[in-house]
Amino acid sequence: MANRTPVLYLSHGAPPLADDATWTRQLAQWSADLAKPRAILVVSAHWEEAPLTLGATTTVPLVYDFWGFPERYYQVKYAAPGAPELAAQVRKLLHSTETPVHDAPDRGLDHGAYVPLVEMFPDADVPVLQISMPSLDPRALYDLGRKLAPLRDEGVLIIGSGFFTHNLRAMQEVNGSNGTPPGWSAEFDHWGEEVLRDRDLDALLDFQHKAPAAAMAHPRIEHFAPLFVSLGASSAEGEGRTVIDGFWHGLAKRSLEFS
Fold first, then answer.
1. Which region, left, alpha or beta, applies to residue 119 given φ > 0 means left and ψ of -120 to 50 means alpha?
2. What end-to-end distance do the CA atoms of the chain give, in Å?
3. Residue 217 to residues 72, 115, 181, 185: CA-CA distances in angstroms?
4. 178-237: per-residue pLDDT in tens?
5. What is the DSSP string of 36-90?
6. What is the DSSP string of 131-157?
7. CA proximity to 248, closest of 15, 2, 5
8. CA distance 106 to 122
9. Among the listed residues 256, 11, 252, 31, the one whose alpha carbon sits nearest the alpha carbon of residue 126
10. Which sequence ranges are marked TM in the entry (predicted)?
11. Which of 101, 115, 135, 222 is the most buried (most CB within 10 A)?
């Protein structure tokens, strides 16, 4: 058990993350401190589909699921190998009459997956599989993570990719990670730090009622939801530690590693 691959929850940022020297350095250092995984399984805030669906298992074009950015962001490539063996393992772990598993063979990695991976694994030499979030229910996603946990014994790095606070309408124009965040973002981030440190799973699963400023921090919860997959995939006694913190244009970029 001591050699299990860790589980990550990361705040993935938008395409301009590539221009943030501090954040890209933090992501690169994080991956350098990890053993190279056999494969990567990503659950991104940007793919909700039920039943649970497996993305492409071959190298296909990326999904540029954002609008209004300079053209150079649409020219980014990340030709990671597909992961058909991992897809077969996921299907075996999850498939039942109650939980069918579908396939989307042409569905490439969206920016919630490839934006951080470009910084963390720039050689694009680790097979990557993305799966959809079939629900936004925290308990259902936690249970999904528990079913995926055995993959960690096979060298698979499970990544939940979201944003620790995410309210684009209230997003502030501040100086990168050094600006003063709005109160709602700072309050939610501080609460999250405390309950994660205490492994208060009940509070986390009921964060919409327990967390301060929850409705402001997450008007819609899809960017917090991948955290529950990561929590489920981590062992019950697994320690979680913050690897990256701070704020980006007022949004908390807290990112965590679970043993």
1. alpha
2. 10
3. 30, 22, 12, 6
4. 568 999 999 999 999 999 999 899 999 999 999 999 999 999 999 999 999 999 999 765
5. PPSEEEEEEEEEE-SS-EE--SS---------S--GGGGS----PPP-HHHHHHH
6. EEE----HHHHHHHHHHHGGGGGGTEE
7. 15
8. 23
9. 31
10. none
11. 115
Give the C-alpha separation, 195 to 135, whole Å. Answer: 23
For residue 65 the two structure tokens come to 């699921």
Residue with tokens 């050699």: 3
Three state DSSP letters for 170-226: HCCCCCHHHCCCCHHHHHHHHHHHHHHHCCCHHHHHCHHHHCCCHHHHCCCHHHCCH
Beta bridge partners of 131: 43, 54
Q: How far apart are CA 243 and CA 7, in angstroms?
A: 12
13: left (phi over 0), alpha (psi -120 to 50) or beta: left
Q: Are 37 and 5 in contact (CB under 8 A)?
A: yes
SS3 33: coil
Residue that the structure tokens 């569905």 belong to: 107
Q: At 103, which amino acid appears? A: D
Q: Is the separation of the CB atoms in 216 and 128 below 8 Å?
A: no
